Amino acid sequence: MTNPMLAAALAIIAQGGRALICEPDGKAPITRFLPNGVLNATNNPELASRWWRHEPDGNVAAATGHPWYDVLDVDVKPDGNGWPAFNRLKAAGLLPAPLFVNGTPSGGIHAGYVGTNQACGSLRKHKLDFKAAGGYILVPPSVVEGRPYTLISERPHARNQLNWSAVRQFLDPPKPRDYSSGVSNRRSTGVSNGIPGLAAWLAGKTKPGRNQALFWAACRAVENGATEQELHELYRSMQLGNGFDERQAARTVVDAFRITNRRSA
Questions:
Q1: φ, ψ for residue 168, nearest 5 deg
Q2: Entry pTM
Q3: pLDDT tens by residue, 30-62
């Protein structure tokens, strides 16, 4: 009977990926087989077979990034979890349908996308990690602390990529250069919603990414007390046209108002 861990490793290799053998019930690569960790991941079925012949209980992992998959890791930890950030990204349209979703032992997920050469990344305060070039993840049926990784869903014909840069900009954006002046104006003039500074930042935004920029700015304005009617001042500061019209902009600020108020309820 074929070892299920080896079978998973051979499936990774058949998909064009590279497999690793990790410690039984653990996440670290077994150093006697992989002295350089993920750099020694293999696409050789015979080598993988030898690994599991010597260590049949070893967990199985896959090197992430091209030519395999990029993976969004939603963590669940004692000090918080990544589900609120995941739901914000989904509501903003920044999470396309993944090729697969695996459940992790902590109660989180690994969501897989078409592999790229993007670098790995982490948003620690949001409990999200991005595994791409140079990274690896454990896959089913690996077990950590007695709990297995599981397959939740597959969409083998999906061809979506995840833009990690857009995710980072949305969840943890750099402070807009003019926003600080908006805050200062708010303190001196009594304007409470920061719209002047945000509008100044938005004024120079052109495609691509201006819809995401508008959504982000509208969310920040709502958090500072802006009404739905006041939000329309934001998109009037933008360069409309070229496929981005007033109706689309209006829908974006309405979505931002609804989503931000739901989060704070």
A1: -65, -40
A2: 0.69
A3: 999 999 999 999 999 999 999 999 999 999 999
